[in-house]
């Protein structure tokens, strides 16, 4: 039978995972970098099966932070949030895959570490909401906005996995 979206007999990979190109922004906040948690956090996304398409370390400007957290600007903790987020470098990355936004939120855990399940990043590595180690976009639309804010399009790379392209002669 013809597969959807392709000629008969042509295997259309995107039919199996229609949103395999979904992307999310994950940032390891200054406390995560300072506590040397970068490797462990990245490992969780790799072992879950997501694809890393963007990665950099930077000292974030106040301008970028105020755009990133614009929805929180009226909150009482907003000034201390900006101080926290500029207290040292962050590692920011873009991960790609099926339902990566929702899955990442589950992996990262509740905003307040006191309510975060053990096994989540926040549930395993933090105990206070003002030092919760990691950021994850909360919706596909939010992810798109944040990725455009933090990355130039040329910093996001397309690549294929060697075990999908190997040929035997
Ligand atoms: P999330 O990061 O889980 O999407 P929010 O968007 O609500 O959560 O908040 C953004 C960040 O602001 C949180 O990750 C946390 O660092 C900080 N924050 C949220 N609530 C508080 C609070 N009550 N006190 C201090 N910091 C907070």
TrEMBL record:
The active site is at residue 135. Residues 21-158 form the Nucleoside diphosphate kinase-like domain. It is found in: Cell projection, Lamellipodium; Cell projection, Ruffle; Cytoplasm; Mitochondrion intermembrane space. ATP binds at residues 29, 77, 105, 111, 122, 132. It is a peripheral membrane protein. Its EC number is 2.7.4.6. One of its GO terms (cellular component) is ruffle. Keywords: ATP-binding, Cell cycle, Cell projection, Cytoplasm, Kinase, Magnesium, Metal-binding, Nucleotide metabolism, Nucleotide-binding, Nucleus, Transferase. It is an enzyme of class 2 (transferase). It catalyses: a 2'-deoxyribonucleoside 5'-diphosphate + ATP = a 2'-deoxyribonucleoside 5'-triphosphate + ADP; a ribonucleoside 5'-diphosphate + ATP = a ribonucleoside 5'-triphosphate + ADP. It comes from the Eukaryota. One of its GO terms (biological process) is GTP biosynthetic process. Its cofactor is Mg(2+). One of its GO terms (molecular function) is ATP binding. Major role in the synthesis of nucleoside triphosphates other than ATP. Belongs to the NDK family. This is Nucleoside diphosphate kinase. It comes from Gasterosteus aculeatus aculeatus (three-spined stickleback).
């Amino acid at each position: 039978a013809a597969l959807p979206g392709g000629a008969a007999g042509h295997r259309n990979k995107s039919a199996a995972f229609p949103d395999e190109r979904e992307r999310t922004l994950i940032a390891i906040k200054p406390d995560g970098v300072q506590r040397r948690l970068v490797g462990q956090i990245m490992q969780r996304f790799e072992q879950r099966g997501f694809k890393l398409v963007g990665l950099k370390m930077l000292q974030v400007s106040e301008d970028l932070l105020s755009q990133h957290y614009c929805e929180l600007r009226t909150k009482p903790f907003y000034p201390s949030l900006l101080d926290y987020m500029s207290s040292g470098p962050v590692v920011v990355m873009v991960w790609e895959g099926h339902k990566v936004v929702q899955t990442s939120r589950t992996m990262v855990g509740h905003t307040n570490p006191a309510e975060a399940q053990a096994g989540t990043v926040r549930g395993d590595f933090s105990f206070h909401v003002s030092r919760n180690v990691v950021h994850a976009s909360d919706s596909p639309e939010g992810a798109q906005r944040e990725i455009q804010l933090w990355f130039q399009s040329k910093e996001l790379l397309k690549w294929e996995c060697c075990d999908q392209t190997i040929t035997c002669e």
